Amino acid sequence: MSGPETCASGELRPEDITIAVTVYSRRGFILGAIRSALDQTVPVKVIVVEDCGPDHGLRDFVNREFGTRLDYYRNSINRGLFDNWNACLDYCHTPWISILHDDDLLRPCFIETMLNLAKSAPGRALYFGRSAVISGDRVTRPPVVSWPGDWRDLDVGELADENPVLFPGHIMNVESARAAGGFKAASYFTGDWDMWFKLALRFGASLSAVDVAVGRSHFGMDRGTTRVEQKGWKWALDNAQRKRNLALLRREKNIVIRFDREKLLRTSPIPSLQLLRYVDEFSDRILRYNAWLFVRSKPPHLMYAGLQWLVRLFGPQSLRFLARLPMVNRFRAPAA
């Protein structure tokens, strides 16, 4: 299992790694993200990649805090979320890169953990750890791992179905990422999953059991994830990516796995509160699709089953009516 030469050419060293912090306009989070990248137990190069944001004083704001401890790049045009990750690859002058969103954090052990993982599993193109989630003042740790040992290789059949490689907490081989075609610049939602799957399929990927990062959960409209969920596109885009993954797996490895929508809806039912929270923003076509998935999901509780019964009886448009009921509407506001 090997990718381009740099992926398997000797031991991974700190000087081989760059952490690229991406930013558009959020002053409220970026200093914390940069500080977490700089304050590693094993220091590495840190850069900031600004996607031509509206805050023309952002570079000075960052430089006043960190001075020469990092390099700051600003795109000449706005490239969008996924193409800005390609910009990170362009600005990176080391063989390996970690892309850190400006609202996420790395734990001090992140780089040290990735170096140890690369020693245990040499020759892969993608290494990553597990992430906690911070929402407001609450931090939720990832669950205890279900496998023996400190790490495991990622099964491509598993990755085709679900994406466990969440931002932040990964490093990837830059040459391998370029060989995979880079990130899909026009992606709406799954451009990261698309890249992780290609890297794992062609060059290998390994996961550490260590909690190495903290992803921030919030619902600001500056987040592309929130906009996708608001429009109701999430489940359609996820399923389209699953089908692309399975097609690539069949084409490149001759491994045939059927897209099993029924299994997905049993194990991951459509979240009813998320559906009701944004239903007024759905187009009629997306509403019909999401309602179709919802009524076929395995109900996790009796209230969910009751909502399913009403939607079956009165049709997809009943979701818009149900979302306005006082007893439902009070649960619709997203958490801070």
What does this structure look like?
The chain is of the alpha/beta class. The chain has two domains: 5-218, Spore Coat Polysaccharide Biosynthesis Protein SpsA, Chain A; 227-329, no CATH class. Helix content is 45%, strand content 17%. It has helices spanning 5-8, 27-38, 58-66, 81-91, 110-120, 156-161, 174-179, 191-203, 224-231, 234-253, 261-267, 272-278, 284-296, 302-314, 318-324, 326-329; strands at 17-23, 45-50, 71-74, 96-101, 105-106, 126-135, 138-140, 151-153, 170-173, 205-216. Strands 1, 2, 3, 4, 5, 6, 7, 8, 9 and 10 form a ten-stranded mixed β-sheet that branches. Helix 3 (58-66) links the parallel strand 2 and strand 3 (71-74). Helix 8 runs parallel beside helix 10 (234-253) and helix 13 crosses helix 14 (302-314). The longest helix is centred in the C-terminal third of the chain and has 20 residues, at 234-253. The radius of gyration is 21 Å and the shape is globular. The chain starts with a helix and ends in a 7-residue tail after the last helix.
